Amino acid sequence: MKALPIRLTPGQDLRAALEAAVQAQNCRAAFVLSGIGSLSTAGIRLAGDKDPTRFTESMEILTLSGTVAANGDKTASHMHMAISTATGQVLGGHVAPGCIVLTTAEVLLALLPDWQFTREPDAGTGYDELVIRARD
Question: Is this structure's pTM higher than 0.85?
Fold first, then answer.
């Protein structure tokens, strides 16, 4: 495991930038150990919902965690985030594309260069679930 601290800048898409950062390290699998920052727009898929809910106000990232898969399959990453609104309301769920950094996002990744993550159908859950393989 190799730690990779990252600072994202205004206008970057949180999810896409983390996937690109992992891929730039010639890695296909990573875990988000920690993440804080601010967003101008967020897409969060709330528990039980099929589609993400869009938020378009200044928000703080309170926590960010999950897996990042940089293998060209954008559905393989799986991150959760808790955010707070300007009024202090706290919301959380799955990180969808379109979470745009407002001022900064400070993220610590754990790169796993010997592994690769994919998502494949799981008959037991009915969903695409994490599959972990040794990297070729």
Answer: yes
Q: Read off φ and ψ for residue 110, nearest 5 degrees.
A: -110, 105
Say if residues 81 and 29 touch (Cβ distance below 8 Å): no
Residue 75: name the closest of 112, 109, 119, 28 by CA: 119
Lookup: tokens for 122: 């799981």
Write the DSSP symbol of residue 28: B
**What pLDDT, in 10s, does the model give residues 108-130?**
999 999 999 999 999 999 988 99
20 Cβ contact partners less than 8 Å away, ≥ 6 residues apart = 70
Distance CA 12, CA 119 (A): 25
Give which of 117, 131, 132, 113 is closest to 26, Cα–Cα.
113
Q: CA 5, 19, 16, 53: dihedral to nearest 10 degrees? A: -100
CA–CA separation, 73 and 59 (whole Å)? 28
Fold category of 2-120 in CATH? 60s Ribosomal Protein L30; Chain: A; (3.30.1330)
